[in-house]
Design goal:
single chain, 816 residues, alpha+beta, Phenylalanyl-tRNA Synthetase, Chain B, domain 1, OB fold (Dihydrolipoamide Acetyltransferase, E2P), Phenylalanyl-tRNA Synthetase, Chain B, domain 3, 6 domains, seven-stranded mixed β-sheet, six-stranded antiparallel β-sheet, 20 helices, 44 strands, 25% helix, 28% strand, globular
């Protein structure tokens, strides 16, 4: 749920900053999940001020340019080169100072820099309206009429401001706070200052009152209260800017002034409204009734739905449905541009009935969201008064008939007995009766009777109060509920911890359990078809070149029993290859293996080091032969995919690759995370395979398990699925043979950070027709804008930018 701070301040004036208000609301149970800063103009015109043109002369080296001096409130006027034909001395103008970032109405944002234009220094820019995003005109600079001093922010002159919008994770029990007024009531109690209802219209029709729309409630249990107003002279059209801005601030799109008012009142007061075209109501009569089983009904979204007998509908006098009560309006009875008479509905519907209908038809609307949780029956007529006040202003509406209000059985306040001693017991400390009384009053909970009300500054003893809880507090029905309300406003942080208090922890500790990580990783690899092996930590010193770098760090066994097991292994590779050889000798040629193992080294200072490694081996066929497709040999990319998936599961997606430098690998990659080499993978060299008598190629990966455990990130990132389609574009890029695809990918990512979703190579080619030392990559690019459908112009602009960067940074030739 989105709440606008500017809108909130119209109901409860406060100068407290958004962050502090967010903290207060979160502490009271209305968790603020985020605060978004909205600007009416991108950039908020920061660095743009008012100035006066002092002098204006023609540029000596350009006929269409002018040299001006402009007073922007500094001690020294600024020289600015201006190309506008209408610039003249004495004008009040808008000036973008050096360092200002401008967001024009069309085109990319740009930053104002000190520059020379045709040899003349320019220390800013005199702006046209399209250059600062205030319009589309570029005929000339803006000339103002104002008494504001030079140097005043342009945003103040144009009345531009920013708004803070709270994203509140509203829990199902807090229906009372599902509106700006509901949140204002919460702040009234937290800040102990009054809030007010907005301006309301009087419901007295003029002298020429006409026949009203008759209303018959046939199911009072499903619809305890139904009210409505008949309006005439309604002029349907676009809403004024202030109303559109209010709706946009909370993520709604303006439709027309009538529908916008109903949406505005819903989010302001929490009471859903529905506007019928009164001329579409047959015989000027409405019936609130259950639908007929199997009845067909076309809703506003153009979908024809099959109703059930449990559905509550608003029907005309002949029983034809016009709306699904509390959920969705009908296609034929909605307000259109031709509408001049409106019947405005405001009702209280049974939450269970609305919830069942919304779930049955898979319709979730702002109205059903509130009706399902329980609205305030006392707000029904107030919302009509507010809507009438607004429709008179924005649509010229006139009240044509008296208020219709079918309310046969009044919904009363809920009686609750509160023992002040019980408050102290559950809260854990004494709260004075005066403070409790203040909290209850601010929450609109009435104290109807006080029993045994003994005043004390340390204990509430036997004091009891009889309370009347208003209907909008749908979740407050018991004594413990009232105590929770008191504690919410009193503040959990104000409850002191005592020495004897104990706590238990259900949450995981931040430090990961290495054994749990190992088990989870083992499950991941086993799920990909890898089999775990366990090999000996002792190995043969003959595997390592005598006098080589590896030999110098070997850890010898002083009392070895076998010459083939006389050193601690410095790498898991040879032990694992022995397992591969054993299986190959038994005609098991397709192997996917992994092992968690230790390696041992002797440092230059003579100390011994022990490290944990995770290794993967892949050999033979990656997929077996079937009648549908032939066997596929295991490749480097099969292994690399497994390694990258493993790293991603540990919180390290997208490692940076570089050529491998490993004594036993013939080519491959080293993967870096935070500039730390965490994995080395590639093809085992032919000399090592020959030494171990392994008769087929083997792909090998070795990961630094100690570092991965230490830097484990248990962070799940979830993103909303985009509503807009992806677009694919392909390029064939010819580059020098030494240029890798990763270099091209990095160039693309740096060139387009907003729309580029992924870069992939789907073909490579080398041949004499490309030229000596050249290679061609066929590269695909996926583009997507999460806010709108991409246009051909935007896609072409991105592709041209990518092509230019490939040509500049990689010397690429684009094959057409």
């Amino acid at each position: 749920m989105k709440i606008s701070l500017d809108w909130l301040r119209t109901l409860l004036p406060t100068d407290k900053p958004a962050v502090e208000i967010g903290q207060l609301l979160t502490g009271s149970g209305l968790e603020v999940e985020g605060i978004e800063e909205l600007e009416n103009v991108p950039g908020g015109l920061r660095g743009v001020v008012l100035g006066t043109v002092l002098t204006c002369e023609r540029h000596p080296d350009a006929d269409k340019l002018s040299l001006t001096t402009v007073d922007v409130g500094d001690a020294t006027p600024r020289q600015i080169v201006c190309g506008a034909p209408n610039v003249a001395a004495g004008q009040r103008v808008v000036v973008a100072l050096e360092g200002a970032m401008l967001y024009p109405s069309e085109g990319e944002p740009f930053k104002i820099k000190k520059s020379k234009i045709r040899g003349a220094a320019s220390e800013g820019m005199i702006c046209a309206e399209d250059e600062i995003g205030l319009g589309s005109s570029h005929a000339g600079i803006m000339v103002l009429t104002t008494d504001l001093p030079n140097g005043s922010p342009a945003a103040d002159y144009f009345g531009l401001g920013s708004d803070s919008v709270f994203e509140i994770g509203l829990t199902p029990n807090r229906a009372d706070a599902a509106s700006h007024f509901g949140v204002a009531r919460e702040l009234r109690a937290l800040l102990q200052q009054p809030c007010r209802l907005p301006a309301l219209a009087h419901l007295t029709p003029g002298e020429n009152a006409k026949a009203n729309v008759s209303v018959t409630v046939e199911d009072a249990e499903a619809c305890p209260r139904y009210a409505g107003l008949l309006l005439e002279n309604v002029q349907v059209g676009a809403s004024p800017e202030w109303l559109q801005r209010r709706l946009r601030s909370i993520g709604l799109s303006p439709i027309n002034n009538v529908v916008d008012v109903t949406n505005f009142v819903l989010h302001e007061l929490g009471q859903p409204l529905h506007a019928f075209d009164a001329d579409q109501i047959t015989d000027q009569g409405l019936r609130i009734k259950r639908a007929s089983e199997g009845e067909q009904f076309a809703t506003l979204d153009g979908v024809t739905r099959t109703l059930r007998a449990a559905d509550l509908v608003i029907a005309d006098a002949k029983g034809q449905p016009l709306a699904l009560a509390g959920v969705f309006g009908g296609k034929t009875s909605g307000v259109s541009d031709a509408t001049t008479r409106v019947f405005l509905e405001s009702a209280y519907f049974n939450p269970a009935v609305v919830r069942r209908t919304a779930q049955t038809h898979q319709l979730k609307t702002d109205a059903s969201f509130r009706f399902e949780r329980g609205t305030d029956p006392n707000m029904v007529v107030v919302a009509l008064q507010r809507a009438l006040e607004l429709l008179k202003e924005v649509a010229g509406a006139v009240l044509a008939a008296p208020l219709v209000d079918e309310y046969p059985a009044r919904i009363e306040h809920t009686p609750v007995r509160l023992r002040l001693r019980r408050v102290e017991q559950l809260v854990g400390q004494f709260i004075s009766p005066e403070r409790i009384r203040q909290i209850l009053t601010d929450l609109d909970i009435l104290i109807t009777e006080e029993i045994n009300n003994q005043q004390s500054t340390t204990s509430n003893q036997q004091a009891e109060w009889l309370l009347a809880v208003p209907p909008h507090k749908v979740d407050v029905t018991r004594e413990v509920d009232v105590i929770e309300e008191i504690l919410r406003i009193y503040g959990y942080n104000h409850v002191a911890l005592r020495p004897h208090n104990a706590s238990s922890f259900l949450a995981k500790f931040p430090n990961p359990d290495p054994e749990v990580l190992r088990q989870n990783t083992a499950r991941l690899l086993s799920g990909q078809g890898y089999s775990e092996i366990i090999t000996n930590s002792l190995t043969n010193s003959q595997y390592f070149e005598k006098g080589g770098e590896q030999d110098k760090t070997l850890v010898p066994i002083l009392n070895f029993n076998s010459a083939e097991l006389n050193v601690m292994r410095p790498t898991v590779l040879h032990s694992a290859l022995e397992v591969v050889r054993h299986n190959l000798n038994r005609r098991q040629r397709d192997l996917k293996l992994y092992e968690f193992g230790k390696t041992y080294h002797r440092a230059a200072d003579g100390k011994y080091q022990e490290k944990n490694r995770l290794v993967l081996l892949l050999t033979g066929n990656a997929t077996a032969e079937t009648w549908q497709h032939p066997a596929a040999k295991a490749t480097f990319h099969d292994l690399a995919g497994a390694v990258q998936q493993l790293l991603a599961s540990l919180g390290h997606a997208g490692p940076a690759p570089q050529p491998v430098q490993h004594p036993y690998l013939a080519g491959g990659l080293t993967l870096l995370v935070q500039n730390q080499p965490v994995a080395q993978l590639g093809a085992v060299s032919a000399s090592v395979l020959k030494q171990l008598d392994v008769s087929q190629p083997v792909w090998y990966a070795e990961l630094d398990w100690d570092w991965l455990v230490k830097k484990y990130k248990n962070k799940l990132v979830a993103r909303e699925l985009s509503k807009f389609p992806e677009v694919r574009r392909d390029l064939s890029v010819v580059v020098d043979r030494g240029v890798t695809f990763e270099q091209l990918r990095q160039i693309a990512v740096r060139a387009e950070k907003k729309l580029l979703q992924s870069v992939n190579v789907f073909d490579t080619y080398e041949g004499p027709n490309l030229g000596e030392g050249k290679k061609s990559y066929s590269v695909s690019f996926l583009l997507q804008d999460p806010t709108q459908t991409l246009t051909d112009q935007a896609i072409d602009a991105v592709m041209q930018r990518l092509i230019a960067q490939f040509e500049q940074q990689a010397g690429a030739i684009i094959r057409r």
